[in-house]
Amino acid sequence: MSFVIGGRPLAERITAEMPSFVRLVLAKITERVPAYQQLPAEELSGDIARVIEGTLRAFAEVLRSRELPTAAELGFLRESAARRAEEGVPIDVVLTAYHVGIQVVWDVLVPEARPEEVGEVLALNALAMRYLQAVTPVVGAGYLDERQTIVDDERSARHLALTGLLDGTRVADGPVVVLAVSVPPHPDELTDGVDAAIAGRRKLRRLRTELERHSREPVLSSLTPTGGLALVPGDDTRLEQVVADVTRAAGVPLTVAAVAAPPSGVAAAARLAREVLDVAVRSGPGLYRLTDMLLEYQLSRPSAALEPLAAVVAPLSEELVQTLEVYLRRGSRRPAATELHVHPNTVDYRLRRVAELTGLDPTRIEHVTLLTAALAARSATDQRQHGR
């Protein structure tokens, strides 16, 4: 039996005054939800108005029968939600519209209730809540299914574009900076009781989001929680700031090798970026271009001089090698001691041992170049021996 408010069955009144209710709901939605104000007028008066009318008729049937509609009967809501998803209307906006529609009906009809109809009003409120509970998952499912289809299509298109650029069968729309990135684990990934996979995906999402924020065009990438490639449209004039912001967003110290590429040179730039990254990771986190790693990069290439150079520092222990690397990078013993967490006198002792074992004094400028080359050659041969 239909609800009766103000001495009149609600279902009959909603049906009889449908055009008026549609206008009221449409006005209230566009007033309360700014996103709907941006829709074309023909869509508001056409598709949106039809959805409102369909929703009101479905609700009127609920009031007449006092039974909730089946999922099949609410199929038109699923289709409408899918169209809103296709248009890019946010899901919270879509769901709010249905609540606004029920609120309008309530505001118009309930004030007319007579004292003896209070029981009807309470029952109406309970049924309206149950109706919204039935509508919400249908609308949400329709919206999310369409969004997933859109995301899958976009991901597939991006993957095809990236593959074409990296295998040389496609030309970029403009200059590109290829970033080869090494991403260490976030502390959350190493914490007991924390799902490492989830923590890694969150880190990756932050990294990707920050990269996209710095570009007006899509950033094609093959990034994973441990690293990969990213193609940033444009030149490298702001690259230091981009890498600093991305590193901060990821929450871990990134090692990034960057190679600028013309539209037709992305594949070659990607190969070079990977090679530079392989060398750069041994120098610690930061941004590296080929010009920053010329000696180290050249010594990582096949050469008859590679093994003899590496042999220069072969007598050194791992401790002495580490001390020598830090000292040459920092340029003096006190900063080196601070980084190594030892006394400056310990650094002096270790450097004397280096000189005794190699015949080259790290504190003499004429020996620094050869020692630097020997360390780079040692790293290159070690990498090859371990198949990296």
Automatic annotation (TrEMBL):
Gene3D superfamilies: PucR C-terminal helix-turn-helix domain (1.10.10.2840). Residues 320-377 form the PucR C-terminal helix-turn-helix domain. Residues 20-158 form the RsbT co-antagonist protein RsbRD N-terminal domain. It comes from the Bacteria. This is Transcriptional regulator. It comes from Lentzea pudingi. The lineage of its organism: Bacteria, Bacillati, Actinomycetota, Actinomycetes, Pseudonocardiales.
